[in-house]
Description:
By secondary structure, the protein is α+β, with helices and mostly antiparallel strands. It has a domain at about 40-85 and about 95-133. Helix content is about 25%, strand content about 35%. It contains three helices and nine strands; from the N terminus they run αββααβββββββ. The chain has helices at about 5-15, 35-45, 50-60, and strands spanning about 25, 30-35, 65-75, 80-85, 90-100, 110, 115, 120-125, 125-130. The strands form two sheets. A seven-stranded mixed beta sheet has the order 1-2-9-8-3-4-5. A two-stranded antiparallel ribbon has the order 6-7. A hairpin with a 5-residue loop joins strand 4 and strand 5 (about 90-100). Helix 2 (about 35-45) crosses helix 3 (about 50-60). It is globular and about 35 Å long.
Amino acid sequence: METTLTESQIREQLRMNTGTTQYFHHPFFKNINYTDGIRDLYQKCESLWLVIDILAVLTTKFINKEFITIYLHKKKEEDSCYITFHGYDGNEIYQQQYAITDFPLNDYTENERHYPALKLYYASRVLYLPSEH
């Protein structure tokens, strides 16, 4: 049985993912790979649902896009969240809402700067964490 990690412990452990040793794919989305870091994310956050949803959006709408930045926004005091997909130019190209979630990471402020709960990258048909860039 895995010990429950705090939000700051999860963030710190995810930052340790630099590069990847192997690529994975979900059986339903074999045309997109993801890294060790993404696997670590869904295991630590118990959020395979999130990765599946992101892969579904990427497969159906953006499979051939060069580069996409994905943000998950969640306020600590709320049970809802939303994900935004941004093109290479930084403009939002898609948004998906979730009325209820138990995702453990929240938007946060550091050095007077606001950050989303989660940021991911998609390039060359690979989904990965910023620390793996």
